[in-house]
Design a protein that fits this description.
The chain has about 325 residues and is an alpha/beta fold. About 40% of the residues lie in helices and about 15% in strands. It contains 12 helices and 12 strands. It has an 8-stranded parallel beta barrel, surrounded by 5 helices. A two-stranded antiparallel ribbon has the order 4-5. Helix 3 links the parallel strand 2 and strand 3. The protein starts with a strand and ends in a 5-residue tail after the last helix.
Length: about 325
């Protein structure tokens, strides 16, 4: 199974999720040291795909520093452009990130991201939406095509929100000089939001690479009194975890991998223990019946994203 490491939790002390335990990330030096250690442990445990972004605080910088200790051409790095981190590591910041899909922002963020070469293999639009008009922005699309050609990159995009499928359909039709621009689709997918399944056959038919993010639904797969409507799901998940002798996280990651073939599923681990627990996903297979049970917990994208919008930065 292909597990990659997402670095959002390694580059900034706060993220939109439900924490299982309170964590004190106020000591920035200790936080950076811990994040560097997670990168090294991930590598030692066999992970070779690392996903980052300038919107993830220090993540790109930390990853670059870590890569300078390596000489291994099997390492693949994906980064993004379009979000700027603005919270300055203040947990009480009113705004943590600002989105801007302009040519100016692309050129500005590329200046740092290109230092990740030659490990950099995938360059993505961070959270492409119909609202920003990014998929019709000719100057940006042409510049991405230039970077693709000059640096032998795969160009991708990440999707978020209720209309992920519509965004993907539009992206498949984006041509520059008669050739499809986008090679990699990083999509939110889990057993609550299964909308990717509506278009996965087409993506695979066109030989696109699929990267799955938010496999743990920002922590909603773990039992939580705030979500009594998921009690049946929690019971089934806990039963499956017991049956396969793994944690709930491994069940959630395995579901993504088995239902979306040839995908890379991102771990969002922020420490060694989480990383090891996530990698237990390689130790078992879900049965068809297991998968059918998990499929039954699908909710509408509208409800999924409304719940996610209500989560706090912490």
């Amino acid at each position: 199974m292909s597990i990659g490491l997402g670095t959002a939790a390694l580059g900034r002390p706060q993220y939109i999720n439900i924490r299982q335990k309170n964590v004190d990330n106020s000591d920035l030096d200790a936080f950076k040291k811990q994040s560097f250690s997670v990168l090294e442990n991930a590598y030692n445990l066999g992970i070779r795909y690392f996903d980052t972004a300038p919107g993830y605080g220090l993540a790109e910088e930390l990853l670059l520093e870590w890569l300078q200790t390596k000489n291994d051409e099997t390492i693949k790095v994906a980064t993004k452009w379009g979000y700027t981190y603005t919270a300055n590591f203040n947990a009480n910041a009113k705004v943590h990130e600002v989105k801007e899909h302009s040519l100016v922002k692309l050129n500005e963020q590329w200046q740092f991201s290109e230092q990740l070469l030659p490990y950099l293999k995938v360059y993505q639009i961070h959270s492409a939406t119909l609202e920003t008009g990014i998929l019709e922005n000719k100057s940006v699309l042409e510049q991405l095509a230039v970077l693709k050609k000059e640096h032998n990159l795969k160009i991708g995009l990440t999707t978020t929100g209720t209309n992920q499928v519509e965004v993907i359909k539009n992206a498949l039709n984006v041509l520059v000089d008669g050739e499809q621009l986008f090679d990699v689709y990083q999509v939110t997918y889990n057993f609550l939001d299964q909308s990717l399944s509506e278009i996965i056959d087409e993506l695979q038919l066109q030989n696109k690479s699929i990267v799955i993010k938010e496999a743990l639904a920002n922590g909603r797969v773990f039992r939580n009194k705030k979500y009594p409507h998921y009690n049946k799901m929690y019971t089934v998940l806990e039963s499956l975890a017991h049956k396969h002798n793994v944690g709930l996280d491994a069940i959630a990651l395995k579901y993504c991998n088995q239902t979306i073939g040839k995908s890379t599923v991102l771990s969002g681990a922020s420490n060694l223990n989480q990383l090891k627990e996530n990698l237990k996903t390689n130790s078992f297979l879900l049965s068809n019946n297991d998968i059918e049970q998990l499929n039954s917990f699908k909710i509408s994208p509208e409800l999924y994203w409304q719940e996610r919008k209500e989560l706090q930065w912490n």
